[in-house]
Amino acid sequence: MSRFITGPFRNALTLLVGLLVLWQALYWVVGDVALRSPLQTAAFMGRFMTSPQFLPHLAETGRAFGLALVLAVAIGLSIGFSLGLNRFMSDVFEPVLVAVYSIPKITLYPILLLAFGLGISAKVAFGAIHGIIPIALFTMAAVRSVRKVYLKTGRVLRLPPTEAILRIVLPAAMPEIFAGLRIGFSLTLIGTLLGEMFASQRGLGFLLMNAIGLHNVDLIMGLTVLLAGFAGVASAVLLSLNKRLQART
Amino acid sequence: MRDVPTPLVLLRGGEKVFPPPGPSGRPVHALGPLDLELRRGEFFAVVGPSGCGKSTLLELIAGLSTASRGEVAFEGRPIRGEIPDGVGVVFQEDASFPWLTVRDNIAFGLKRLPLPADEKTRRIERALAMMGLASFAASYPAQLSGGMRQRVCIARTLVTEPKLILLDEPFGALDQQTRLLMGDEVLNLWRKTGATVFLITHALDEAAMLADRIGVMSARPGRLIDVVETGWPRDRDSRIVEEEAFGAITARLWRSLRAESMKSLGHAGAAA
Ligand SMILES: Nc1ncnc2c1ncn2[C@@H]1O[C@H](COP(=O)(O)OP(=O)(O)OP(=O)(O)O)[C@@H](O)[C@H]1O
Ligand SMILES: [Mg+2]
């Protein structure tokens, strides 16, 4: 039995229990006005998640996030590869990307709303914008740092360029690219939710904003826990995949 | 018209100058001018002080880089930056792919060859056995020692059955005993395949034991200052280190190299 509770799993469990204890303690100090206890939140979420209004909002956010993620990964990888494979281009565009990355993305939101309207596309675009640049920057650095001797090996074996990219550059750069994908994942999620919070009629972000407006503490806490839980689990899964990739090098 | 067969590789006035490393630096004259001829089927070794341009020479022959001046020809055809068919290279650095198992690393060499699957399997098994890697076929390079990873790279080159095998200090990471035994394996392979072997080494005894001819290079920019014929029979092995001629060859190599090695260490005055 205790055999199963070892290593990273035990660490995660310890962290979880620690957070719950902290939460409960905070609840005792602050009281009912601003917080709910873990148990109350769980009970509320149990009811809320089985109510008919929950699923459509979840589906909306899931769809927006999924689309944004696909876009961010596809565009980020393409930019990263084109720049990484070309020394001159990457020297020129890296500072530009870093500069764009440091702009608070929220300043772009009005422009996006004008371009895409209030529907799902604005959220998707806003989510993707958050993810593209970190994925591109990580991919570019990863591709550039692929050891020259691997590429020479490909040339001696007379691989055509596309095959050399697929069979050598991609796997060689994968551990580092994956680190970029992990960060891109979190930022795209944040971007999508922010998009929903500020201009949308549907989705978990919209529900959260609404709950804040109505001071619905139950719903605020419930949604926060739900989103944090999702991000935490996803991040843990990606991290363990990343570790497995890195273990080989 | 001519009864002399064309050499497999012919280098005439080959030189390599690298562009300056920084905006204020000077161009690096790494190699040559150098004339070299590799005869079909011979075992040619190159020794030279460190940094004299041995790897640079290998890349010119492989077609991995172009000569700044001079000509390189493979089977009578000039090569300018494109890799001729039938050349295999084992690099000085570890070039095993960490994301593939030992077996998949070796199989990678066969990716582009239109061979039936069972022939590929046969070649891979034979290379695994020859390089002593059979029990590590499913391991990843990270689980192997440096010397074993280098053997993976040799095996990956062998399966393509190249006409010309270029080896850049492949046994640098091995201990002396293993080096002698690997030397026997390379000799075996050279005899069985009939390939031409070009071997860079820093060990004079290794060159003296393995090669038909040994080129001695000067300090950078590397030129050939001596070519020593060993006159060994084709079916030799590491036991020739006991022969009298072996000592004489090693001594001659060292005589040619001593002054050059000192130069490359910066003892220019002591060279006389
Ligand atoms: N791409 C490059 N750009 C600039 N200089 C280079 C480059 N490659 C090699 N050199 C320089 O050319 C010279 C010869 O290098 P090379 O690697 O051919 O020497 P080597 O004889 O193989 O040395 P070692 O015995 O250490 O392997 C060195 O001074 C090196 O610094
Ligand atoms: Mg070298």
CATH class of chain A: Mainly Alpha
Radius of gyration of chain A: 22 Å
Shape of chain B: globular
Strand content of chain B: 15-25%
Number of strands of chain A: 0
Count of alpha/pi helices of chain B: 7
Strand order of the largest sheet of chain B: 6-7-8-3-9-10
User: What does the main sheet of chain B amount to?
Assistant: 6 strands, mixed
Strand pairing plus helix content of chain B: what structural class? alpha/beta
CATH architecture of chain A: Orthogonal Bundle
Cα(first) to Cα(last) distance of chain A is 33 Å
- Compute the number of helices of chain A: 10
Gyration radius of chain B, in Å: 19 Å
The residue-averaged pLDDT of chain B reads 87
Characteristic terms for this protein:
heterodimer, A: 249 residues, mainly alpha, MetI-like fold, 10 helices, 0% strand, B: 272 residues, alpha/beta, six-stranded mixed sheet, four-stranded antiparallel sheet, 7 helices, 10 strands, 33% helix, 22% strand, binds adenosine-5'-triphosphate, binds magnesium ion, membrane (chain A)
Write the layout of secondary structure elements.
The complex is a heterodimer of chains A (249) and B (272).
Chain A: H1 7-30, H2 38-50, H3 54-84, H4 87-102, H5 109-116, H6 120-144, H7 148-156, H8 161-198, H9 204-214, H10 217-247
Helix pairs in contact in A: 2-10, 3-6, 3-8, 4-6, 5-6, 6-8, 7-8, 8-9, 8-10, 9-10
Chain B: E1 9-18, E2 28-38, E3 43-47, H1 54-62, E4 69-74, E5 77-78, E6 87-90, H2 102-108, H3 117-130, H4 146-158, E7 164-168, H5 176-193, E8 196-200, H6 204-210, E9 213-217, E10 224-229, H7 244-265
Parallel strand pairs in B: 3-8, 3-9, 6-7, 7-8
Antiparallel strand pairs in B: 1-2, 1-4, 4-5, 9-10
The complex binds adenosine-5'-triphosphate (ATP) and magnesium ion (MG).
In short:
The complex is a heterodimer of chains A (249) and B (272). Chain A has 249 residues and is mainly alpha-helical.
